[in-house]
Amino acid sequence: MAKVIRLFNDHEAKQEALVTHIEEFLQMAKKGEIKNFLVSAENIDGTVMTGYCNLDVAEKQYMLGHIQVDINYEIVKVNMCDLVEWVNE
Fold first, then answer.
1. What is the rounded CA–CA span in Å between residue 6 and residue 68?
2. Please, which residues bridge with residue 38 across strands?
3. What CA–CA distances, in Å, run from 38 to 59, 62, 83?
4. Can you give the pLDDT of all 89 residues of the chain as single tens digits?
5. What is the DSSP string of 31-87?
């Protein structure tokens, strides 16, 4: 598995920050720094849009695995005190 590098991780970002992140990502793509991508976005009406570019089924799963690793990292980080306490029992 490749190294996971966070481009951004704003939990409570304003709309302006969202647009800035998308523009930064677009600039990376324009420079040729990105060869494929996977996206999921929730609309204000609650519907979820998903999309991808240059990914077959296996590559989509590979990318999704990286997102899951990032989420698991966040869960462990939030619960670190409890985990240390549990290990020390």
1. 13
2. 52
3. 10, 10, 32
4. 566 666 666 666 788 888 888 899 899 999 999 999 999 888 899 999 999 999 999 999 999 998 898 888 888 888 888 877 888 88
5. TT--S-EEEEEE-TTS-EEEEEES--HHHHHHHHHHHHHHHHHHHHHHTHHHHHHHH
